[in-house]
Amino acid sequence: MVVLTPTRPEGAEPEDFHLSRRGLAAAVLAGYALAARSAQAQPVVTDAAGLVTEMVQVETPDRAIPAFVARPAARGRFPVVVVIPEVFGLHEYIRDICRRLAKLGYVAISPDLFIRQGDPSTVTDFAAVRKIVGEVSEAQVMSDVASALTFVKAQKYADPAKIAITGFCWGGAIVWLASARFKDIKAGAAWYGRLSAPKPGEFLGEPNRTWPLQVVGRLGPPVIGLYAGKDGGIPVSDVEAMRAALTAAGRTSSQIVLYPDSQHGFHADYRASYDATAATDAWNRMLTHFAANGVKPKAYRAS
């Protein structure tokens, strides 16, 4: 049995979970992150019928990096969603999110932002996950996101004028930073991404890293932040501080939604923290937010 309560913004602490051999084998076969799969969870599985799904190579300044793309198997140009993963990288949950978006009429692309340092989805020790993620610099991530944007805009199946970004946990923080940097992005959805800097000595607590509360004044596209009231690493005070900062900076088209009874990772359907009600509501809010800002498929219908 796997017992998991990942209530922290960058994953979990060792005491948060235990993997048995049986749980480890199940995670390996399913393609989910080994350090986070819960035996009690029943992940959403989206088939690829009617889609094109493929691994592509995205050229960056120093090397090519892999990225997963899911898109409708049809002619025409489709709006784009860049999907930024959690600390566990490009595992099955993230690929399934891409397929879900593609089923709705989006091109979804998720670059492997950890490829130079390792594959955090294949290790069971969260200390090893932290080592991989901690070695990835902010400059590298922003460069790779820029390269992914360049790649997808050049594809005949993508509409370069309709690009959104979403991300989960570690990726949620990246959504805020990317939305303050890249003009191609028209809307963002940040799922429980850390908002303020960790304390020195904590995971990702290096002083040279930027955090969302520091870039509010530079935000371009509107961002919807989707947060949990019982998050063990993102206090509600930080969420309220972000909400106040958005108002003070005049970023009134951005918004924060707080699910008071949910835990960190409430959308992660392969974890015990999954909250189906909150996840569904937040997903629909994300789609509505994208559509309101011009990033919507032709067949979009507000729920």
How would you explain this protein's 3D organization?
It is built from seven helices and ten strands. The chain has an eight-stranded mixed beta sheet with strand order 3-4-6-5-7-8-9-10, with helices on both faces. Strands 1-2 form a two-stranded antiparallel ribbon. It is globular and about 50 Å long. The protein starts with a strand and ends in an 11-residue tail after the last helix. The relative contact order is 0.15.
Q: Secondary structure elements and their pairing?
A:
Elements: E1 3-4, E2 17-18, H1 21-30, E3 51-59, E4 64-72, E5 78-84, H2 92-103, E6 107-111, H3 126-134, H4 138-153, E7 158-168, H5 170-179, E8 187-191, E9 223-228, H6 236-248, E10 255-259, H7 276-292
Parallel strand pairs: 5-6, 5-7, 7-8, 8-9, 9-10
Antiparallel strand pairs: 1-2, 3-4, 4-6
Gist of the model:
The protein is α/β, with parallel strands linked by helices.
Summary tags:
Rossmann fold; two-stranded antiparallel sheet; disordered N terminus; alpha/beta; globular; 303 residues; eight-stranded mixed sheet; 7 helices
Kindly report how far apart the N and C termini lie: 37 Å
H and E order = EEHEEEHEHHEHEEHEH
The residue fraction in helices comes out at 25-40%
CATH class: Alpha Beta
Q: Specify the biggest β-sheet.
A: 8 strands, mixed
> Strand arrangement, largest sheet?
3-4-6-5-7-8-9-10
Secondary-structure-derived class: alpha/beta
> Which ranges are low-confidence, i.e. pLDDT below 50, for 5 or more consecutive residues?
1-8, 11-29
Examine the secondary-structure arrangement and name the CATH architecture.
3-Layer(aba) Sandwich
Number of strand segments = 10
Residues in β-strands, percent: 15-25%
Q: How many discrete domains? A: 1
Report the total helices: 7
